[in-house]
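Example for tutorial group B:
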């Protein structure tokens, strides 16, 4: 997936991600990770997580005091085999399932 190279005017497409309104293809826009946070945390109050593959977002409902619970309940995770490789990225449940199904270690994830 290529990223938009325009200075984007983005809109939230009902929780399915942020899209560039200037691109005819309406490509997903990857928002920056907040400073000091783990990859894919793009908002903090409320918690907003973004899939680094498809651009989908999850907005938490529990507030900043329960950010950890929101992150766990979101289903947005890192693929186990990417730990420590520098390639680890947060993915939505659908993208994570696709990556895990294509993984050579399939069936051995914990």
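The residue assignment follows.
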């Amino acid at each position: 997936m290529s990223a938009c190279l325009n200075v984007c005017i983005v809109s939230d497409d009902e929780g399915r991600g942020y899209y560039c309104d200037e691109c005819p293809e309406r490509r997903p826009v990857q928002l920056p990770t907040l400073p000091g946070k783990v990859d894919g945390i793009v908002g903090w109050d409320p918690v907003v997580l973004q899939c680094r593959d498809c651009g989908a977002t999850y907005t938490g409902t529990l507030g900043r005091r329960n950010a950890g619970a929101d992150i766990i309940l979101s289903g947005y995770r890192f693929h186990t085999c990417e730990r420590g490789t520098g390639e680890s990225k947060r993915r939505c449940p659908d993208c994570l399932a696709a990556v895990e199904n294509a993984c050579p270690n399939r069936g051995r994830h914990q």
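The longest strand covers residues 41-44. Compare this with the pattern of hydrophobic and polar residues in the output above.
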